[in-house]
Specification:
The chain is 45% helix and 19% strand. The protein is built from six helices and five strands.
Amino acid sequence: MKKTIALVLALMMALCLCACGKTQTGPGPAQNADLDMTAFYEATMEKHEFPGMVLAEGDMLEMSYPGLSALDGVAEFQVYTPMMTGAAAELTLVKLADPSAADAVKTVFDARVAACTEDGMNYPETIDAWVNNCRQVTAGNYMMLVVHTDCDAIQSEFEAAVQAK
């Protein structure tokens, strides 16, 4: 019975979130950004099958990526997570204003991966996906954390998109 109620509530939340389709970025759009991170996200969603994704903001962002929004040296970021917590998918894009911030961003990424692979915190299939289908990528002044069965292809597309700019 609890599972049925949880499923109904999750579906209601998904429908509510679908109505809020506005996309926003992290601390503010970077001036003269080389890579349009929103366009990259949209192209990735079209090409690869992801579950319903939402832009993490406020408490949701801080719970998933504590400290990311306060990092010095980060010009812009976008964190997309699935609407349903059991789904093993994620796409996080970061533009660095200062390349020396890469280590701090990697620390935040590592903490996210650790939290999602901690035994008992997720379903075994979700943990397995975070272990085997997760890539952290640095390309120029951009960083990406992706969790998806096509993570290697998405990594290649990200690196090519950054290189093309």
